[in-house]
Design brief:
The protein contains 7 helices and 13 strands. The chain is an alpha/beta fold. Strand 1, helix 1 and strand 2 form a beta-alpha-beta unit. The chain is globular.
Length: 313
């Protein structure tokens, strides 16, 4: 049965969690009213992707970098707390599945380290999965810690069995295969990358995995950055497109069925049908009849990796 998907690429209120949450709730209301039941938000959307990391000077901007990180930490999401409760309640109220990117604060161990995290919330408001980005890219390593494989899971939703990788994780063939091997029907890739190469990669994944692919990014201009952002005008000229968006939906086999939604701060709608994924794998099933387990093996350790284990826990 087909499901209507809403890929939301409206800008956040950068570094302001509560204001961004308000925008997200408004977008959920809008998408649900349009009949969508699977809603996808961009990478690190709450409270916004750290685009400044690609613009700061390693030495000369250390003080600014420290201030931005402090503000980001103060507005990050503690998944052991109540920060996502409004979104969980909205998911249950509308009966929709949410996939959203956030900056996750490690409150259990360090109280300081942040992770680039994707959360899947089911239509009953219950959290289905948390995936931390395995390898931040280039200057992102000054923002986020390294995730583990505990979130490399495919979860069942009314729209189909979905799994997620963040941004350039889509270029990690073993991570992709770990998802394919869990009866994947919908592959979701919230990303900051809007290049033609990224689109080609997502089309390749749709063919390789025999799955639907949803790519989501943020459409954002310098004028969308709030005035409270330190040194905003130096880092983000108001007329500049910081990110083009380019939300896209791709059918199993590689055909683009919706998007890319280019430089439009809106919502991309499309239909996905998991039965089409199963039909696509009749000829090419990389974890089934096209696999060669006699020649190749993959072992994935999904044990959560904390920095310490206490004997009395």
């Amino acid at each position: 049965m087909a499901t209507t998907v809403a890929v939301i690429q409206k800008p956040p209120v950068l570094l302001e969690r509560e204001a961004t949450l308000e925008r997200m709730l408004a977008s959920i209301d809008e998408a649900a009213a349009a009949g969508a039941s699977l809603l996808v938000f961009p990478e690190a959307h709450l409270p916004g992707y750290p685009a400044w990391a690609w613009r700061l000077k390693p030495g000369g901007d250390m003080a600014l970098s420290a201030e931005l990180h402090a503000r980001l930490r103060a507005n990050a999401v503690d998944l052991d707390g109540e920060a996502l409760r409004p979104l969980e309640e909205a998911a249950a109220r509308h009966g929709v599945t949410l996939v959203l990117g956030c900056h996750e604060l490690d409150s259990r161990y360090s109280g300081t380290t942040l992770y680039n995290t994707l959360v899947v919330i089911g239509p009953d408001g219950v959290r289905l999965n948390r995936h931390r980005k395995l390898m931040p890219t280039n200057p992102e390593r000054m923002i986020w810690g390294l995730g583990d494989a505990s979130g490399l899971r495919v979860v069942a939703t009314p729209a189909g069995r979905l799994g997620c990788l963040i941004c350039w994780e889509c270029y990690m063939p073993l991570a992709r295969y770990a998802l394919y091997a869990q009866d994947l029907e919908i592959f979701i890739n919230p990303t900051w990358d809007t290049s033609d190469v990224c689109l080609a990669t997502l089309r390749h994944i749709a063919k390789e995995g025999g799955c639907w692919v949803i790519g989501s990014a943020t459409a954002m201009q310098g004028s969308d950055v709030p005035a409270s952002f330190p040194e905003r005008d130096r880092l983000f000229p108001p007329d500049e497109w910081i990110n083009d968006g380019n939300a896209v939906i791709i059918a199993p086999g590689g055909e683009v069925t919706a998007g890319p939604l280019h430089r439009e701060k809106g919502i991309l709608y499309g239909e996905v049908d998991p039965e089409q994924a199963r039909r696509a794998r009749r000829s090419l099933d990389v974890c089934g009849h096209y696999a060669r387990p006699d020649l190749f093996t993959l072992s994935v350790d999904r044990t959560p990796r904390g920095p310490v284990r206490f004997a009395d826990e």
